[in-house]
Input
Amino acid sequence: MTSRPVPPAGPQRVLALAQLTNSIGDGAYYVTSALYFTHGVGLAPARVGLGLTVAWAVGSLAGVPLGRVADRRGPRGTAVLLALGTGAAVASFLVVRGFVPFVLAACAYATAQSGLAAARQALLAGLVAAGERTGLLAHLQATLNAGLAVGAGLGGLALQAGTRAAYLAVFALDAASFLVCAAMLLRLPAVAPVAVRKRDTLGVLRDRPYALLTLLNTVLLLRMPLLSLGLPLWIAERTTAPTWLVSALFVLNTGAVMLFQVRTARGVTGLASATRVVRRSGWVMLGACAVFALSAGASLRVAVGALVVGAVLQVVAEMGQSAGSWQLSFDLAPAGRVGEYQGFFGTGVTVARTLGPLVLTSLLVEWGTPGWLLLGALTVVASYAMGPATRRAAGRAAGGARQPELVGCDRG
Output
């Protein structure tokens, strides 16, 4: 695995370009959608929040069956259709004028997005050798952040204009980005579908070790709303730091991922190295939480310094945890059923996005320093529990449930 800035030519580079195109559209959508739905459509903020919560709950349930479709019908064709479906769902927002149509469109969007993520993972697994997957996922994560940054800049122009036409242009851009993504995916070689076996009816739901791994990873992903919700509220309510620091910390996080995610993932080559990096990231996250807590009630200079140092530690923990979880999620999935398993593993992201705001608000804003320390301790416990959970899943794999070459530990 190398730290080269772009993936090698071929399927890996095409996958990265497909990621870049739709992430630019998504970046513009993310920074403008809330204001469009409230000011442009006229929905109350509480209704927008409720509708999106319902939508992502539906999307999380759809991830597994759509991942199974990708395995059994072929991941490339499924990914292309779901990219087109996502684009159509975004385009439908252009004509939404009420709460019920908004919820229906949001459900279609979340469902297609969840299925697309699972199908793309299955496609990646079929086209890229096992030893190169984590490295490519690191490239894709860096590409995602770059695209989101560019898209956020375009969305900022729409916010500056503040007109309905500008908002509609953003949604049209996002819809078009998924059409380009579908065209990119069509350039990839086809991956053969997997034959259906009756005993696999319940699929991943039978696999308790993998389900435990997914649950533990969900706990680690509770950090996801930290930059968008937890820290902004903490800075405003508990520190003397200026609120513009929120934007600076977001830029720091995004830039670090773009520059260092590939390098961080370079040493993750199997189950042993993956569990090690997850454990180490747990301790780093505990350190980040402790430093963040020091900013409460401190002088301006101390508060700003603590928040910046904490943000650096947090992104280091984030990059390590991401690299380790990618390796585990692929290596412990049965050959030929990656889409189904990735669809299930991906529900952790949706659950973290749904529960994270409530958890972080309660822990950080209401509890203060004890809440930060509890969040850090919870991360350490979950990161250490990943080791026994991985060994249990690998032991089950050795009994014949999975392909041997996908569960071997690091060499050398």
